[in-house]
Design brief:
This protein has about 150 residues and is an alpha+beta fold. It contains five helices and five strands; from the N terminus they run E-E-H-E-E-E-H-H-H-H. Helix 2 (about 85-95) packs across helix 5.
Length: about 150
Amino acid sequence: MSQVSMTVNGKVRKATVDPRVLLVYFLRDQLRLTGTHIGCDTSQCGACTVMIDGRSAKSCTIFAVQADGSEITTIEGLATNGQLHPLQQGFWEEHGLQCGFCTPGMIMAAVTLLKDNPSPSEREIREGITGNFCRCTGYQHIVNAIQHAATKR
């Protein structure tokens, strides 16, 4: 067993973990932050995307011990003082979701996209979310939601 300490959604969290536990399972099972979804366990779908030290990353590819000392933001940590993050608001207003399973990971990937490129074109948005699969929407409303958020930032 290993001790880990990381800041998750602004709160220092310490725990004992098996060194083989993936960050996604640590977040969901030990911290009960179930907005981070498990879709494939092979890093293909992006449903597990979170922010690690300010950059989006697939939490199914990282052991919890590798995140020791890091700052983690999950979908639960994006809203501030009851105000939705512009991307969360964009997905709401532009109907960027259907079943909602991919939505947290899609939003977290888009955070880095808009951080790197505050005014992306449709093509750049589509390229920026290529590591995240949606099986419901056909992506157009997701692209619209990200464009909406870009204009509101």
